[in-house]
Amino acid sequence: MLRLALVVSFFAFSLVGVGCEDASPPPSAPDTMTDSTITRIAFGSCNRQSVDQPLWSPIQAATPDLWVWLGDNIYADTDNMAAMDSMYAVQKQQPGYRTLRQQTRVLGTWDDHDYGANDAGRTYPKRDSSQQLLLDFLDVPEDDPRRTRTGVYSSHVFGPPGRRVKVILLDTRYHRDPLTRDPLSDQRYFPNPTGDLLGEDQWNWLERELTQSDAQIHLLGTSIQAVAEQHNWEKWANFPEAHQRLYDLIDRSDAPGVLLLSGDRHIAELSRHDDAIDYPLYDLTSSGLTHYASPGEEANRHRVGSMITALHYGLLTIDWDADPTTIRMEIRGEENEALLDRTVSLDALQPAG
Fold it and tell me: Which of the listed CATH numbers 3.50.50.60, 3.40.50.10260, 1.10.10.60, 3.60.21.70 matches domain 29-348?
């Protein structure tokens, strides 16, 4: 009887343990973490591997602690993985970029052209193979969680308590639902009201990364623009339900210091949304490392300052010693000149609670 009671008790305890484990989501665990304080983060997108790349020297001269790729890191547009691999090899051996890699930590996500096809989403047939090639390009270790994840999204924490930055890079391609083009316009998509961009696993992961974070600054990288919504190209606003879900998630998380970094557009601009969350939400777009567009003055009711049509990169500078801490947001050109320059106090990026 005693033996039977012990067995029954152990079995009951095991069921309780299993039930508790299933009911609780896994804790937030960044893909990389270091206690080194960072103050300068450079980033950019839209880089053709086969043309001149004049910005690596000014980027190096800015001495960033991090370089962040925001997508279209190469222009592959192929389902031939051997060809894509060779294109990544060309970029990796580009002299200016090779020197930057030796001096600066590199992170990144992808957009459509390095994913494999223009404007592609979850129906792209080689997305798993393409994912491994991007991770190879970024020198991601074989035992990193991104090697088995469905999508290249990742988080990275830098700095000691009180001076901590979390870089969260989204994957807006792997799980993206299709859009339909307007047959009367090459530029316009019909919105997909209930379509998704991230997939449930990534949504749940993002919520944990924000709600369980102790960082003072959260840099949220998205390959396409989130705040600008009036143009006819790819954007979060093409997926209205997912777009609002992103805002609601950030707002609900009570994460401080959230700044959006985006690419894709072949222009640069700073957008500010005052009603998306309970503090101003900025989206700094840097897109044009090797080429840029000149679409004229494009509508964007959230734009702060001017739209930039020139080769450029983005730079954030954090002044931890200022009281209060400040974040300087710049778009810089080929001579390292500031084409756009705006500073925000970290005190202004705090949840109301």
Answer: 3.60.21.70
